[in-house]
Write a structure and sequence with these properties.
This is Formate dehydrogenase subunit alpha. The protein is of the alpha/beta class. It contains 15 helices and twelve strands.
Length: about 325
C-alpha cells in the first residue's frame, strides 16, 4: 500500500517519490538520488527522537519536553531583551506553507530578524532577473527545452545534479539541438556536449559571454526587431561590448578565438536558444556580472518569451 506522491527533497526539479507504507521504502522515484532515501530511512544512525544535551552528552527527550523547553527559553529572552533580540533562519527544504507559518511565528515573537538560505543560493540571479525582466525566476517550464535548437549550459552539471532534466536535454539533442557547455572543469555534462569550452580562470564567464555578444553584433546576427520593440539601453550595451573583442579575450581567457566564434555563431543562428546556469555562476564574486551577461545575451538574440527560448537559473534545493 502506498501513500500519495510527495516532492523529492534532493533538488529543485520537483519530481514525485512514492513510499510503501508497509515497509517504509521507496517504490517509485525520479532518479538515483531519491532512490537513496531507502538507505537512510532504515539506517541505524537515523535519529528518531529529539535529543537534548545534558552535561556534554545527548540524551533522548520527548517532543513535549523539547517544545516546552524552547518556548520557555524564548519567553525568557523576549521578556528581558525584547523580541528583536532574536534572529531566525528558515530552510530551503521547507514548503511554502511551512515558511509562511515560520515567518508569522517570528512576527508573533516580535522580531523582523528573519532570513532564509534561499536568499544566498541564487541571490545574483534573482536580483538581475528582477531588474531586467521583472520577475526573479526562470522564464519557461523545463518541458520547453525540447523546442530549443541550442542549449547553453554554464557552471552547472545536470548529468549528476539533475538526472531527470538531463533526459529532457538529451531529448532536445535527439531533435537536433546543439548542446554547448561552458565550465571551469570537464564535467560529465561536457561529455555529452557538441561544443565544450573550459574556463581556465574561474569567475571570467562574464567576459566570454560579452565577447560572444561582441561577435554576434559584429556579424549582424542579433535580433534588431526584438531589441527595438522590447528593450532599452542597447546603445550603452553596445559601447560596453566593444571592449570585449575576440583577440583581447583570447589572450586573457586562454581560449582560442576560433572556439569563441564557433559557440557564438552556433548559438546565434539556432533561432531558438535556452540558457541554463547553476551555483558555479551564481555563487562566485562575479556572479552578478555573469548573470547580467547571460540575460543580455538572451535579449540580444530575442531568446525570451517563446517556446524553446528561455533562461533557467537551476536550483540545488527542493524549495528555493
Amino acid at each position: 500500500m502506498s501513500i500519495p506522491g510527495f516532492i523529492c527533497p534532493f533538488c529543485g526539479f520537483g519530481c514525485k517519490i512514492y513510499i510503501n507504507k508497509e515497509n517504509s521504502s521507496i517504490y517509485r522515484a525520479g532518479c538515483i538520488k531519491s532512490v537513496s532515501i531507502n538507505s537512510f530511512i532504515k539506517s541505524k544512525y537515523r535519529i528518531l527522537t529529539p535529543l537534548v544535551k545534558i552535561s556534554g552528552s545527548f540524551s533522548e527527550a520527548s517532543w513535549n519536553h523539547i517544545i516546552s523547553s524552547i518556548a520557555l527559553e524564548l519567553r525568557k529572552i523576549v521578556k528581558v531583551y525584547g523580541g528583536s533580540s532574536i534572529a531566525f533562519i528558515g530552510g530551503s527544504k521547507c514548503s511554502n506553507e511551512e515558511n509562511y507559518l515560520f515567518q508569522k511565528f517570528v512576527r508573533f515573537i516580535g522580531s523582523n530578524n528573519i532570513d532564509n538560505c534561499v536568499r544566498l543560493c541564487h541571490a545574483a540571479s534573482i536580483d538581475v532577473l528582477s531588474r531586467s525582466l521583472g520577475f526573479g525566476a526562470q522564464t519557461n517550464p523545463f518541458s520547453d527545452l525540447i523546442y530549443s535548437k541550442a542549449i547553453l549550459i554554464l557552471g552547472y552539471n545536470p548529468v549528476v545534479t539533475h538526472p531527470p532534466l538531463t533526459s529532457i536535454i538529451l531529448e532536445a539533442k535527439k531533435r537536433g539541438a546543439k548542446i554547448m557547455v561552458i565550465d571551469v572543469r570537464k564535467s560529465e555534462t561536457a561529455k555529452i556536449a557538441d561544443i565544450s569550452i573550459q574556463i581556465k580562470r574561474p569567475g571570467m564567464d562574464y567576459m566570454l559571454l560579452l565577447c560572444m555578444a561582441n561577435i554576434i553584433l559584429s556579424n549582424n546576427l542579433y535580433n534588431r526587431e526584438f531589441l527595438e520593440k522590447k528593450t532599452m539601453g542597447f546603445e550603452e550595451f553596445l559601447e560596453t561590448v566593444k571592449k570585449y573583442d575576440p583577440i583581447t579575450c583570447e589572450k586573457i581567457l586562454d581560449i582560442s578565438k576560433k572556439q569563441i566564434e564557433e559557440v557564438s555563431k552556433e548559438f546565434a543562428i539556432a533561432g531558438r536558444g535556452s540558457i541554463l546556469w547553476g551555483m558555479g555562476v551564481a555563487q562566485n564574486p562575479m556572479g552578478y556580472n555573469t548573470v547580467a551577461a547571460i540575460v543580455n545575451l538572451a535579449l540580444l538574440l530575442g531568446y525570451i518569451g517563446k517556446k524553446g527560448c528561455g533562461l533557467y537559473p537551476v536550483r540545488g534545493q527542493s524549495n528555493v
